Each structure stands twice: as C-alpha cells, then as structure tokens.
C-alpha cells in the first residue's frame, strides 16, 4: 500500500487496536512482572523502590540485572553502564521504525519510543509491512505491556514474601523463556539469534574468568556490538 495514500497518523482507534493485539502477550508479561516483584523482595528492595523502577524504567532485562548489583553502596556507574549496554539494541529497533516515525515532529518521535519493547516493536513492524500507518498500534502495544508489567510487579511484591522458593514455580526461568521467545518468535527477530548467541557465550566466559557481575555487562556489550556489525541488508529489509 502506498504510504502517500495512507499517511502516518496517530489516534485513539489505532491505540486501542495496538492494545487488543498485545493483550495475549500482556497476560504473559504479568507473570514476568510477578517474577521481578518476587526477586525484588528476596533481594531486599523496598516495595516503593521496586514499583518506581517498574513504573519509570520499564526495562525488564536491565531491572533484573540491577538486582544482581543491588547492594550497599549502590554502584550507580555500573548500573548505568549495564542499562545502556543491555539496551543498545533499541538503536537498531528505532532505526527500523524511522520510516514510519519520520513524518512526526522530533518531539513526538521521541515520545513514541518511550514504551518501545521488543514485542510491540515486532508487532507494529509486522502491521507496518501489512500496510498499517497508524502509529497507535505501537503506542497501544506499549501501553498494554507497561500496564501488565506494573500490575505483575505489584502482585509479586504483595505475595513475594510468602514464596520462599521461587524456583518451585518456575519463576527463576521466566526471564530465560521470555528471551528465547524474542529470539525465535518471528521473522523480524530471527537474525537476532546471532547477537544473542554471542552475548550468551561471552557472558559465560566472563562469568568464569572475570570478577563478579562483569559478565552481565560483557554479554550485553558483545551482543550489542555484534548486532551493530550485522550486514545492513537485514535491517534495511526490516524497515523497507
């Protein structure tokens, strides 16, 4: 479909469509948020600290990574570096969306990616390829996932103290399942198996041979660098 005949727009109808499309995954995200809430309780975070993190950070991989470093004194520089490294992929994801976002004013472009995740990015990009030009699907998908993540975190905080062995319920592998779903969940992400594999191998090597906690940063940086160095045609294909 010609983009001139169907120009970029953003409205309530598209936003509700995005919410509806993302509801099935949002249900899973509640369980994922619950796992974070339970982990936060067992790590010693105050309820308000964990809730503020989910409300304003909304970045599951870096939030779980932050728990690994949550001790006194808080290593703020390391936390910032790890967060930046883990989410390097968002530069590539935003670049793939740029042809769609380009007609918007710069301020609105930045506002649209505040709730950007792997899942609503993949869903919205698929809709774009099918002729959709309403950016509400991207925004609505992000709203659905953010709401589910916050609700799940709250549930985990309420009941986390009573779960003495989270591994009995599989809560310790939810992160792994989520990441595997991203890697194999659809054609736009398939090529990303390469940086994920590079990140996993480098993180394991760092875990064995480097000081504690550095494996998180090493894995994230390696995966991000490999993703950036992938042949450009993969991402041109995603954004065409």
Task: Report what the structure shows.
The protein is mainly alpha-helical. The chain has one domain. The chain is 72% helix and 0% strand. The chain is built from 13 helices and no strands. The chain has helices spanning 12-43, 47-56, 60-68, 76-86, 89-101, 106-112, 118-129, 136-159, 174-184, 187-190, 193-209, 214-229, 232-239. Helix 1 runs parallel beside helix 3 (60-68) and helix 5 packs parallel to helix 13. The chain is globular and about 55 Å long.
Q: What's the gyration radius in Å?
A: 18 Å
Overall geometry: globular
The count of strands amounts to: 0
Any idea how many domains? 1
Number of helices: 13
**What does the main sheet amount to?**
none
The H/E string reads: HHHHHHHHHHHHH
What integer is the average pLDDT?
79
- Between the first and last Cα atoms, what is the distance in angstroms? 12 Å
Overall structural class, as computed from helix and strand content, comes to mainly alpha
Q: Strand share of the residues? A: under 5%
- What proportion of the residues is helical, as a percent range? over 70%
Give a brief rundown of this model.
With 240 residues, the protein is mainly alpha-helical. It contains 13 helices and no strands.
Throw out a few tags for this protein.
240 residues, mainly alpha, 13 helices, disordered C terminus
């Amino acid at each position: 479909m010609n983009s001139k005949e169907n120009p970029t727009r953003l409205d309530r109808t598209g936003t509700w469509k995005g919410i509806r499309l993302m509801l099935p995954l949002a249900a899973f995200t509640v369980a994922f948020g619950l796992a974070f809430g339970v982990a936060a309780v067992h790590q010693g975070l105050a309820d308000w600290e964990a809730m503020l993190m989910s409300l304003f950070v909304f970045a599951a991989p870096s939030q779980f990574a932050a728990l690994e470093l949550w001790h006194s004194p808080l290593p703020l520089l390391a936390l910032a570096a790890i967060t930046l490294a883990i989410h390097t992929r968002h530069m590539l994801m935003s670049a793939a969306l740029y042809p769609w976002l380009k007609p918007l004013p710069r301020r609105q472009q930045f506002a649209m990616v505040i709730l950007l995740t792997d899942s609503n990015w993949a869903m919205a990009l698929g809709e774009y390829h099918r002729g959709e030009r309403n950016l509400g699907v991207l925004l609505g998908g992000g709203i659905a996932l953010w709401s589910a993540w916050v609700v799940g975190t709250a549930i985990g905080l309420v009941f986390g103290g009573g779960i003495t062995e989270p591994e009995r319920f599989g809560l310790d592998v939810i992160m792994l399942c989520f990441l595997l779903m991203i890697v194999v969940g659809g054609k736009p992400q398939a090529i990303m198996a390469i940086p994920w594999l590079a990140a996993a191998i480098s993180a394991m090597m760092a875990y064995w041979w480097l000081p504690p906690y550095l494996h998180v940063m090493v894995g994230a940086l390696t995966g991000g660098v490999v993703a950036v160095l992938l042949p450009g045609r993969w991402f041109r294909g995603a954004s065409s």
